[in-house]
Design brief:
Blueprint lengths: L16 H10 L5 H5 L9 E6 L3 E4 L9 H6 L5 E3 H13 L5 E5 L4 E2 L2 H16 L3 E6 L4 H7 L4 E5 L3 E3 L5 E2 L4 H7 L2 E6 L8 H4 L5 H26 L3 H10 L1 E3 H6 L5 E3 L4 H6 L6 E4 L11 H9 L11 E8 L1 E3 L8 E3 H13 L3 E10 L1 E3 H15 L4 E10 L1 H4 L7 E3 L4 E3 L4 E6 L1 H6 L24 H26 L3 H4 L7 E3 H7 L4 E2 L2 H12 L7 E4 L16 H6 L7 H9 L3 H14 L4 E4 L5 E2 L1
Parallel strand pairs: 1-4, 1-13, 2-3, 2-5, 4-6, 6-7, 7-12, 14-17, 14-25, 15-16, 17-19, 19-20, 19-21, 20-24
Antiparallel strand pairs: 8-11, 9-27, 10-22, 18-26, 21-23, 22-26
Length: 611
Amino acid sequence: MVFRATDPNPTRRPIAGWVLVALAVLLPALPVVAASAEPSDADEPHAIRIVRPKGLYADHPTAGGFDPMSLLLGGGGPTRSFPALCERLLEFAADPEIDSILFDLSAPFSMNLPQLSELRRVLQRVSAAGKGTMAWIENGALPHLAIGSSCDRILMADFGTLDVPSLGMSAMHFKDAMDLLGVEASVARVGDFKGAVEPYTRSEISDHLREHYRAMLSSMNDSVVLWMVEGRGMTTSEVRSIQADRMFTATAALERGLVDTLVPYGSMEEMVESEFAEGVEWRKPGRKVQPPPNFFEVFSSLFGVTPKLPVSEPSIAVLHLDGQIMDGETAVPGSMISGPTVKAIERLAQDENIRGVVVRINSPGGSATASEAIRQALIDLKAVKPVVISMGTTAASGGYWISCLGQPIYAEAGTITGSIGVFAMKLSFGPLMSRYGLRVTPINLDDTAGAMEISRGWSPRETERIELLIGEVYDRFLAVVGESRGMSVEEVGPIAGGRVWSGHQALDLGLVDAIGGTESAVAHVARLAGLPADAPVIHRPDESNPLAGFDLFGTGGEEEIRMLRGIDTAPLLLLRELGFDLIGHLRQALDISSHGSPKVMMLAPTQIVVH
């Protein structure tokens, strides 16, 4: 989600002297900012560092400094490093020349729930270092309040709005669209929880899945409520009432205790300055001057990758494993491909200056064979140096499988994990092909030889045989989890079956060890490795070629759709945006047909979108 604010650089309006006097009378609480900071010399102005989050924050941006899509499409929001933001804030906390930090939250920015939890812990360290903190909000939502409620004070534009919803989620189902297109799904699965395949087999969500998701959302929302309880001094019932009402004008937000002060647009700096007799020295983010693009530099950025310098001192590595897990030997941006991932793990194992590794997982799972290849590489890694797992937004199914190392696991309250289940699915396109005069005549020695034909679904006998296959993988999954977590298979069974859990639920069930983020995991692995708390931290893998997987001389899925002649392509484009890539599924079906065997998947429900 990207939360848009109004013009981030409004024209500053002069304020008459009588307005400043009135503000001084009406806002006696503002000096708390100065009181919480280290006292400064009377002659020295109060130094306030402005921090302005902007763009999409990622745990490990992989596209380097050059964004080819921005070049081709004429813009787009920047992707920024979330760990770099946290490190910068801690640098400000340790800087004796900075007295306070003001978060200017007027620009559009996006952070997920685990990142917001981590950032709040960083802000607690900033406050503990004696720095005052303030937040400036124009139009705000949950991320703005997550940051603001961790500050000493929230200032809000007097004509702004505040949106404070409880957590919700969307469940997208494709069954009716598939019927209209003439596409059928054949599914083999084990366990009693069917969330991963419901979008392809049902027109709407089942009652048992709805209730399971509702319980998970409630657990995740409890952590959001706690942010407000701790930061704003509210009761749980007050916060839930605010979430139920949801939308507030600036005046209503002030009345409900969501903010501390309303300020006219353009006068925030003047108001803050009026409260410090010694004056204010504003420390604003520097603006880099970008030189005009050079033709040769652009192509060098496109086709070359600048490797990171070798690690020259004892350090901790954060290994980012992101995206759907897939078999293969070529890296694909946004996916976790088994071959390159295993090689990246092996390099960490061989680097003598890497003394410990935090494995940061953001993945819904994927291929069973690829997941096991990556897990085995991580087992080899933990044999030579300490390893700790840190879960991000999602570490489910295959993403949980690769976490099963018998090592400490940290998850955030907003993490989605578990989904211990296995399934196999094939889409068949017989009815769609018939509409366009295509007819397939299979010639096989046995009926089962045509099980992977693109034109038909699985027969009952074929489904039974495939279920035996995935049943064996599922049994192995239960055993792997049990061995890793010190549980019996009988104990794992009731919490498996493909069920997904929030971080707190997973903690209660014994699937993770603690609630915490990357910082907590780094501190843990530093202790295990015998390194100081301030040991250098590096992030891996190296940045990939921004055009990896981008075929300059071919066409992508959208272009393939647009090239379909005589077909109304608008529905196909819409479905692709909503998560159902017909062309992609068709390509996969053709690939499966050529290999002659079903793909065994450990994948979390694809339709989970928490907002």
